């Protein structure tokens, strides 16, 4: 049995779940999410918990079992508490600011880079610590938006300039040594 797949998903107070076959809708204080899972997985609601079961021990069913449970758990966590990724802007003259809801990045190009948030994503910028917070209820969208912002100016190993995740460590390289 899958260790992750056999664990029940605990549904906190204030979160509504509607299961119709393999289609799951989750609604909570931070928004609503829905997803259609493979029809083979058996999703049921039992006394405040959600259980995912697989029909057989085939390789594909084993692979889908844990993934289905993890996606449902991410949906429940997303609509109740939400997800957040923090990015850090490093470099002389590099900065980020909010213009209405749009994120404006000044990262060494001849022009500012404007990033528009998709639906369900919110940006928050702290100019003193040079941190950008990307938050939302869909874990996949939050992670993808953070990766897209990082891709504007990835950190480089010689001077450490660029946009990096807060927990990311940049391996620094020693540069060239001059001729004596």
Q: Determine Rg (CA atoms, Å).
A: 21 Å
Q: Overall 3D geometry?
A: elongated
How confident is the prediction overall: mean pLDDT?
Answer: 92
Q: Number of helical segments?
A: 2
Decide which structural class fits the backbone.
alpha+beta
Helix content: 10-25%
> What do we call the CATH homologous superfamily of the largest domain?
Ribosomal protein L6
Binned strand content: 35-45%
SSE layout and pairings?
Layout: E1 9-10, E2 16-20, E3 23-28, E4 31-36, E5 42-46, E6 49-53, H1 59-80, E7 83-90, E8 95-99, E9 102-106, E10 113-115, E11 121-126, E12 131-136, H2 139-152, E13 162-165
Antiparallel strand pairs: 1-6, 2-3, 3-4, 5-6, 7-12, 7-13, 8-9, 9-10, 11-12
Characteristic key phrases:
single chain, about 180 residues, alpha+beta, Outer Surface Protein A, domain 3, 2 domains, 4-stranded antiparallel sheet, 3-stranded antiparallel sheet, 13 strands, about 20% helix, about 35% strand
Written overview of the protein:
This protein has helices at residues 59-80, 139-152, and strands at residues 9-10, 16-20, 23-28, 31-36, 42-46, 49-53, 83-90, 95-99, 102-106, 113-115, 121-126, 131-136, 162-165. The chain has 180 residues and is α+β, with helices and mostly antiparallel strands. The chain has two domains: 9-80, Outer Surface Protein A, domain 3 (Alpha-Beta Complex), CATH 3.90.930; 83-165, Outer Surface Protein A, domain 3 (Alpha-Beta Complex).
Question: What would you say about this model in short?
Answer:
This protein has 2 helices and 13 strands.
């Amino acid at each position: 049995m899958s260790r992750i797949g056999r664990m029940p998903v605990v549904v906190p107070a204030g979160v509504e779940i509607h299961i119709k076959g393999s289609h799951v809708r989750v609604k909570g204080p931070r928004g609503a999410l829905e997803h259609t899972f493979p029809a083979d997985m058996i999703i049921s609601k039992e006394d405040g918990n959600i259980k995912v079961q697989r029909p057989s021990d085939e390789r594909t069913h084993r692979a889908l079992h844990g993934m289905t449970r993890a996606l449902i758990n991410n949906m429940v966590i997303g609509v109740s508490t939400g997800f957040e990724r923090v990015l850090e802007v490093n470099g002389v003259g590099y900065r980020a600011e909010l213009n209405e809801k749009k994120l404006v990045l000044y990262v060494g190009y001849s022009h500012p880079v404007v990033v528009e948030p998709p639906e369900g994503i919110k940006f928050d910028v702290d100019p003193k610590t040079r941190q950008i917070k990307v938050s939302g209820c869909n874990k996949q969208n939050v992670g993808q938006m953070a990766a897209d912002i990082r891709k504007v100016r990835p950190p480089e190993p010689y001077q450490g300039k660029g946009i990096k995740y807060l927990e990311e460590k940049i391996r620094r390289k020693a540069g060239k040594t001059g001729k004596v």
